[in-house]
């Protein structure tokens, strides 16, 4: 096998001085984020001063949902009445950016300017004042964490409800009716976040008594009669300080490994935890200190590689650096530990910095299964795509080398 570097004399350097027939087996470009569009949810009630925007998990692959809170006076946001004396209504708006964008110009993620027009297929969740009350989307229907009237013994109880596209509600689960969880936690669990992985549905819950956390694994499924059910068959209390009260605001599900033996979770300030599916008992595999306390984390399910996004918004250039930590070879996912000494700088994307609020340049990172890319949302809602086929083989970039900045013209 011959590896050719891109240069005018690469054939001569490789010792190929005579006529030869070359067959290209693989071709890798340098790792580079490309801007694929800009989301403009302002036309649908988003404003950075009033609410934050967040990615919402769904059971369908190839979706990139954004959620935010909006308010209005009237029957609906589209028919809102400015200056009206009618009661002020708040709701969560959720949109699949991938579906509302124009047809791609080149490839599945190269798009024009992204807008969220009134005709977009928005999912509205009336009566909910924060995205944290929406655990995820199941077939475009929001899965909601709600409080229901319970028994005299437990009073109000936590419930999980599926809101239909016609506004109907179907109760999937009630805490006061789950005998096993009642026995384990006394009816004191509060739902916080949800994550789908094929047929599995994971929920991270908070135990209010001591602010500890419980990871639950269940199955949410549709039956032949169009009804749904949710059953939790496994759970584990996280007693080892893996998820703390202080870090919960930055908790984000990253995904599972390719063999689906473990769940990976960003537990705040760059720290990453692994939760083996046979026990659901989490442990840190990358600490805050070893990650450099980065703001966002990307995960490659094909290789179990970790991508750390270091937010440098206080500097003029570059605003962000992306480091890769490869997973050790021949180590099972449940036994992985990530070594800071193997951290490599691979690119310096020219993300835009949020002009208001926290002035962050990275608002979210997600893996897209359909394109095998990391998708990032920058501070001004620009969408960027990094092909992982290039990032996996990218050699380390020197810290002072500015040739990998992403402000170069498109190819």
Textual characterization of the structure:
With 411 residues, the protein is mainly β. It contains 5 helices and 24 strands. The chain is globular.
Provide a brief overview of the structure.
By secondary structure, the protein is mainly β. Helix content is 6%, strand content 38%. The radius of gyration is 23 Å and the shape is globular.
Question: Unreliable runs, pLDDT <50, ≥5 residues?
Answer: 100-121, 404-411
Order of helices and strands: HEEEEHEEEEEHEEEEEEEEHEEEEEEEH
Strand content: 35-45%
Gyration radius from CA atoms, angstroms: 23 Å
Separate helix tally: 5
Q: What's the story with the biggest beta sheet?
A: 4 strands, antiparallel
Gap from first CA to last CA: 28 Å
Helix content: under 10%
How many beta-strand elements?
24
What class, by secondary structure content? mainly beta
Main-sheet strand order equals 1-24-23-22
Mean pLDDT: 79
* Shape, principal axes of CA atoms: globular
Topology:
Elements lengths: L9 H4 L20 E5 L15 E3 L8 E9 L14 E9 H4 L22 E4 L7 E5 L2 E8 L8 E7 L5 E6 L4 H7 L3 E9 L2 E8 L4 E11 L5 E11 L12 E6 L5 E6 L4 E5 L6 E4 L1 H4 L4 E5 L4 E7 L8 E6 L17 E5 L14 E7 L4 E6 L3 E6 H4 L20
Antiparallel strand pairs: 1-24, 2-3, 3-4, 4-5, 6-7, 7-8, 8-9, 10-11, 11-12, 12-13, 14-15, 15-16, 16-17, 18-19, 19-20, 20-21, 22-23, 23-24
